[in-house]
Amino acid sequence: MSFVVRRKGLTLFDWVNYSLVILISLACIFPFLYVFSVSFTDPQVYVPLKFYLFPEKWSLESYRYILSTNSFLNSLKSTVFITVVGTILNLIVSFTMAYGLTKKSLPGHKWMMGLVIFTLVFSAGIVPNYLLVKELGLLNSYWSMIWPNLTNAWSLIVIKSFLESLPSELEDSGKIDGCTDFQVFMRIVIPLSMPAIATFTLFFAVGHWNAYFNALIYLSDSSKWTLQLLIKTLVIDSNSVAVAQAGASDENVVPQETIRMASIVLAMLPILLVYPFLQKHFAKGVMLGSIKG
Fold first, then answer.
1. The pTM of the whole model exceeds 0.70
2. Boundaries of each ABC transmembrane type-1 domain copy (predicted)?
3. Fewer CB within 10 Å, N or C, the chain?
C-alpha cells in the first residue's frame, strides 16, 4: 500500500521539502529586512523594540550621521587597507609558493610539501600565535592582520593542483625560446591562471574584509579598529566609547539602534554588491584542480 499522496505531479515529500526550504529562507531573510528597515527609518518615528518589516518613514539621517563620525571612517580606512594590501600579498605568496611546489626537482620538495600538509592538520593555537606576533613587534599594527595570514595550506594545495593541470609543454616551449623560470612563470603560467587568480582574489578579499577575531586580539587602539570590530562594539557594548561617539549629538540625537543597523548595512554592502556578479568564480573555485584533462 502506497502512502505517497500526489498533487499536481508533486509527492507529499516534495511539499514538505519545499515548505521547509521556504520557512528556512524566510528565517534567514527576515533579519536582513529588519536591519535594512531600521537603518532607513526616520529617527523621529522610530520606536524601540518594535519589529519593522518596512520603514514607516524613510530617512537617510542615520547614514549621514554614521558617515560623519571619525570612528566609522577610520575603521573603513583600516579595513580597506588590510583588504587591499593583504589580498595582493596573499596572491603573490600563494601562487609563487604553489608554483614552486609543482616542481618535484626542487631540493627539499617532499619536506616542504610535508610541512604544508602538517599545518593543514595541526595548528599552533591562539596563545603561540599571539606570542609570535608580540615578539615580532606587530601588536597594534595593521601588519598583524596581514603577515601571519600570507597564505594557508588549503589554498596552496588547491592552487598547486590547478597549476599541475596546465600543459607542461607550454613551459618547455618557453624555455626553448630562452625564457628563464621567472619569465615562464610571469608570461605563461600567470596568464593561464587568471580563473584561479580571480577566484582566490575573492576568497582572500572576503576573508580580510570579514576578519574579526584577529583584530580583536591584536588591535587595541580604537583608531585602528576594523569595521567588524567597530560593529561588534556598537551592537554589543552599548556603553562603550564607540557608541558614544557614533550615537550622541548635542543638537540632534539619533537613536543608537538606527546607528547600529546603518553601520551593519554599510559593512555588508560591498560584499552584497560583489557576490551576485562574481558568484560564478566562487562556484568555479570549488572545482579548481579537481579534474585533470
1. yes
2. 76-277
3. N
Q: 73-112 as b/e, with b when 16 or more CB fall inside 10 Å?
A: ebbbebbebbbeebbebbbeebbebbbbbbeeeeeeeeee
Instruction: Report the amino acid identity of residue 288.
Output: L
State pLDDT tens for residues 46-89. 777 677 777 778 888 888 888 888 888 888 899 999 999 999 99
Domains in the chain: boundaries: 61-293
CATH T-level topology, domain 61-293: MetI-like fold (1.10.3720)
In whole angstroms, what is the distance from residue 41 CA to residue 217 CA?
34
Q: Which 3 state secondary structure label does DSSP give 288?
A: coil
CA distance 212 to 45: 33
38 touches 49 (CB < 8 A): no
Per this entry, what is the length of the chain? Answer: 293
Angle, helices 70-101 vs 227-235, to 10°: value is 130
